[in-house]
Write a structure and sequence with these properties.
Blueprint (H helix, E strand, L loop, with lengths): L1 H9 L23 H17 L7 E2 L2 H7 L4 H13 L3 E4 L3 E4 L10 H7 L6 H25 L2 H17 L4 H17 L3 H4 L2 H15 L10 H13 L2 H22 L2
Antiparallel strand pairs: 1-3, 2-3
Helix pairs in contact: 2-4, 2-5, 3-4, 6-8, 6-11, 6-12, 7-8, 7-11, 8-10, 10-12, 11-12
C-alpha cells in the first residue's frame, strides 16, 4: 500500500493529498531553508531508492508536486537539484524530471545509503557494499600498518576506547566505530582512499544499525576491531590485512543473518 500511495502522489498521476501537513493558511508558513529541502529530498530519495518510483518514471510537474508535498516550489526545486547531484534524477526542458537508471546513481553517497537503509535494503546492494569493503579495507589496513604515525595511533586507540565504553548498540559507540574506520583510511596516506571515508563510514554505521533493528547483535564485534587496531599499532601489515578481512567477512555474516 505504501508504494502505491507514493507512486500516486509523486508519479504521473495527479496527487490528491500532501505528505507534509499544512500549517496555517498560507504556504509561507510551511517552512523554508535547508531543513525543509532536506525533508523533501529524503522523501523523494527514499521513494526512488526503495523502488516505489522506478527508473524511467517521470515525476509530476513542479507545481503539482510542490502542492502535493505541501511545500513551496523553490523548496521542491532545490530538493530535486539535490537528487540530480546524486545522479538519481535528470531534469530536461519540456521533458520534465525522470528517474535515472540505477547505474547512474551515486550509490556511495552517504544520503543515498541512508535512504536505502530507511526501509528494507536491497540484498544485492548490501552484498555490493560488503564486496567493496572487502576490496578496500584490508588493503587500507595494510597501508595503515606501514605508514601510521603517533597521531594515527592515538586516533585508533581513542576510537577503540569509545567502542568499548559505549558498545555498538548506542549512537556514541557507532560514532566511535566510524572514527575507527576513518582513522585507518587516513593512516593509509592515500588521498584517493581517504575520499572513501564518508562512504565507508556511512556503510558501516547503517549496516550496524540495520543488524540491530529486530534483535541485539548476535555477537560483540569490538574484539574484531581490537585485533585490527593492535596489528596496525604494532606495524604488522600482514596481520592487519588479515584481521580486517575477517572483520568484514564476519560483519557480512551478521548482516545476512539479520536479513533472514
Amino acid at each position: 500500500m505504501k508504494r502505491t500511495r507514493e507512486k500516486r502522489e509523486l508519479g504521473d498521476d495527479n496527487p490528491d493529498e500532501g505528505i507534509f501537513p499544512a500549517s496555517g493558511s498560507g504556504r509561507s508558513e510551511r517552512g523554508t531553508g535547508r531543513r525543509l529541502r532536506g525533508a523533501v529530498a529524503h522523501y523523494l530519495g527514499t521513494a526512488i531508492v526503495s523502488g516505489a518510483i522506478q527508473p524511467g518514471e517521470r515525476l509530476t510537474g513542479e507545481v503539482d508536486n510542490s502542492a502535493a508535498l505541501n511545500v513551496s516550489r523553490s523548496a521542491y526545486r532545490e530538493a530535486v537539484q539535490v537528487l540530480a547531484a546524486k545522479g538519481l534524477v535528470e531534469s530536461r526542458t519540456k521533458a520534465g524530471t525522470r528517474v535515472l537508471p540505477r547505474s547512474r546513481w551515486n550509490l556511495l553517497d552517504p544520503d543515498v545509503l541512508a535512504w536505502a537503509f530507511s526501509g528494507e535494503p536491497d540484498i544485492g546492494y548490501v552484498r555490493d557494499l560488503f564486496e567493496l569493503r572487502a576490496i578496500v579495507e584490508p588493503a587500507a589496513a595494510r597501508l595503515a600498518a606501514e605508514r601510521r604515525d603517533k597521531a594515527d595511533i592515538r586516533a585508533l586507540r581513542e576510537a577503540l576506547t569509545g567502542m568499548r565504553r559505549h558498545t555498538l548498540a548506542t549512537e556514541a559507540g557507532r560514532a566511535a566505530d566510524r572514527d575507527f574506520h576513518d582513522a585507518i583510511l587516513r593512516a593509509s596516506r592515500n588521498d584517493v582512499l581517504i575520499t572513501l571515508s564518508a562512504s565507508i563510514g556511512a556503510a558501516v554505521s547503517w549496516t550496524t544499525q540495520f543488524k540491530q533493528r529486530v534483535r541485539a547483535l548476535p555477537r560483540d564485534p569490538v574484539p574484531d576491531h581490537v585485533r585490527v587496531g593492535d596489528a596496525i599499532i604494532a606495524g604488522d601489515a600482514d596481520e592487519a590485512e588479515a584481521a580486517m578481512r575477517i572483520l568484514v567477512e564476519l560483519a557480512l555474516q551478521d548482516t545476512s543473518s539479520s536479513m533472514g
